Q: What sequence folds into this?
């Protein structure tokens, strides 16, 4: 437990650092930029297709799961590169597991997107 006195300034600083992390991810990280682009497309399509509240929740849930997984994956990769700059079989397992988390979230988001968008897009063309 932290015995430091509660300070609103320190809480605000934590937000500042978190936003610095977000900026690092979405501006400097290639995967982050790709995910931001995909999220913008999905949100744009959701507005265009006038999704219901439940459909919006599913799409936003999918987007956040992928972005959260990718941010944690990027953080783990950076930490692993400091801990072991050279090849290490255990670092391989750590990095592969972190990448697997992104893969699972991305596949599920893709399925959710397909279930919601495909019937609406097919219906639009008739
Ligand atoms: N230090 C290491 N020791 C062992 N295996 C590693 C190491 N670094 C990377 N690897 C292997 O290479 C794969 C890719 O690692 P890397 O850090 O390049 O991830 P990436 O997703 O390609 O990176 P980026 O996000 O920069 O594109 C890992 O999943 C792991 O199997």
A:
């Amino acid at each position: 437990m932290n015995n430091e006195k509660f300070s609103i300034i320190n809480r605000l600083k934590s937000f500042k650092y978190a936003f610095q992390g977000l900026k690092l991810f979405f501006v400097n990280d290639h995967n982050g930029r790709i995910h931001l682009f995909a999220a913008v497309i999905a949100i744009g399509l959701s507005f265009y297709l006038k999704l219901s509240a439940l459909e919006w929740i599913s799409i936003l849930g999918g987007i956040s799961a992928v972005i959260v997984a990718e941010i944690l994956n990027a953080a783990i990769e950076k930490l692993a590169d400091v801990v072991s700059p050279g090849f290490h079989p255990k670092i391989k397992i750590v990095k592969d597991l972190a990448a697997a988390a992104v893969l699972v979230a991305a596949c599920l988001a893709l399925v959710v997107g397909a279930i919601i968008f495909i019937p609406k897009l097919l219906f639009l063309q008739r």
